[in-house]
Amino acid sequence: MDLSFSLAETAFQTEVRDFIAAHLTADIKRAWALTSAFLAEPDVAGPWHRALATQGWVAPLWPRENGGPGWTPAQHYIFETECALAGAPPLAPLGIRMVGPVLIGFGSAAQKAHYLPRILSGEDYWCQGYSEPGAGSDLASLSTRAVHDGDDYLVNGSKIWTTHAHHANRMFALVRTGQGERKQEGISFLLIDMTAPGISVRPIRTMGGDHDVNQVFFNDVRVPVANLVGEEGKGWSYGKYLLEFERGAGIAAARMRVSLNRLRAIALGAAGDPLLAARFSEIEIDIDTVEMTELRIMASLQAGQNPGPVASMLWLRTTEVKQAVTRLGVDVLGADALPSEPMRPFHRLNRHAVMDEDALPVIPLHLNGRAETIFGGTSEVQREIIGKLMLGL
Ligand SMILES: Cc1cc2nc3c(=O)[nH]c(=O)nc-3n(C[C@H](O)[C@H](O)[C@H](O)COP(=O)(O)OP(=O)(O)OC[C@H]3O[C@@H](n4cnc5c(N)ncnc54)[C@H](O)[C@@H]3O)c2cc1C
Fold first, then answer.
1. Where in the chain is the domain with CATH 1.20.140.10?
2. Residue 74 above 80 pLDDT?
3. What is the position in ligand 1's atom list of the atom closest to the CA of 368?
4. What digits encode the pLDDT tens for the residues 249-267?
5. Is the Cβ–Cβ distance between 233 and 177 less than 8 Å?
6. Residues 6 or more apart from 267 whose CB is under 8 A from it?
7. Where in the chain is the domain with CATH 2.40.110.10?
8. Which of 26, 45, 90, 130 is the most exposed place for a label (fewest CB within 10 A)?
């Protein structure tokens, strides 16, 4: 397996670095460095999204005919890594990495023509309506109903933990349109206009103090039948296809390394502590192993092979190492962590001139990071999938 980059790939790396140097402003970098939530807010990531859009680099995995750059897996890897190392905010995955691929795979020609360019330009901001108060890991138990009424569906029910629903003008949702023998049958994949009458969004504050997630209520919301993706009742298979992209082989090692190095800078005062030094080394090695696995997956994709089980295990490992990094942050701050308030750090800068700016997001990052092993499917559920499908247990 060849993990080195070719001359052409090294030239591409230089092109990416040049673009970043010219377009990633100090303001964008600072706003992302001060973000403690797991997703950048639209006002943080938006300017970077628009800069990438002018270059055609918003959706690295989309085919060229749909507005993607037509990159190889190696180019995608180089791009993501360089953006992370430079301190660029990640773009919201909900349109680009989640509903986009479903529309490309299963959407009608009209849906593709309407929605894909709006995802690329950033005009539409999407949220994901899967989970419900009674349906999380057991997602197929969902009960939000969509009933035919003329050319529309009438939607009633509620979705919960909906990330950035308060920013989104669109939601892709799994709704129940029928009842089959198995509960996975009779589920449909709908595109919903978040400004439609009958939709209300209630904020949920997380323990990190941020407002990222919401509960969304639907009260006789009219959704045109034209907004059904694919076939009615087949939404479960489209929804699972989307989860493959949500959980799919990420490129996370570079971002974890940046976070660890920021902690190293904060920990200068504790440089003589051998226990802390050992923790840094252990986590650094963990990040190295994640990076090696990412490169192995990239190399097999590059060679036209399916990476197989290793990609699923990478998701589990990555979330665990991310949590180890944020946990280390708490130990690095020690007693200084106590006065930390649960609020979006970006907004409390002036009131906390006492604390080093780099240290501000450390505690909220740790608290928000607990969610890493919950969303996209909990670690327990992922282990069950690995046990059943890969190990045949
Ligand atoms: C920050 C955050 C953002 C989120 N964003 C979104 C979003 O944008 N859109 C969306 O639709 N959802 C979102 N979610 C919801 C997320 O997908 C669910 O929280 C997750 O699927 C778990 O479901 P649950 O919370 O109902 O927990 P449950 O399913 O009730 O699980 C409770 C506990 O039981 C364990 N458990 C459950 N089933 C099994 C099993 N079969 N075997 C072993 N253990 C099991 C779980 O691991 C967990 O520890 C988000 C969640 C969080 C925390």
1. 248-390
2. yes
3. 1
4. 578 999 999 999 999 988 8
5. yes
6. 276, 280, 332
7. 126-236
8. 26
pLDDT tens-digit series, residues 85-134? 999 999 999 999 999 999 999 999 999 999 999 999 999 999 999 999 99
CA Rg, the chain, in Å? 21
Choice from 137, 194, 384 to test ligand 1 binding pocket (greatest atom count within 8 A of CB): 137
CB 79 within 8 A of CB 57: yes
Assign domain 248-390 to a CATH class. mainly alpha
> Cα–Cα distance between 393 and 390 in angstroms, integer?
8
Q: What's the CA-to-centroid distance between 279 and ligand 1, angstroms?
A: 30
User: pLDDT value at position 59?
Assistant: 95
Give residue 393's pLDDT band: very low, low, confident or very high (50, 70, 90): confident
How many other CB atoms are found less than 10 A from the CB of residue 271? 10
The answer for residues whose C-beta is within 8 angstroms of residue 315's C-beta and 6 or more apart is: 247, 248, 250, 376, 382
pTM summary value: 0.93
Q: How far is the CA of 70 from the centre of ligand 1 (A)?
A: 34
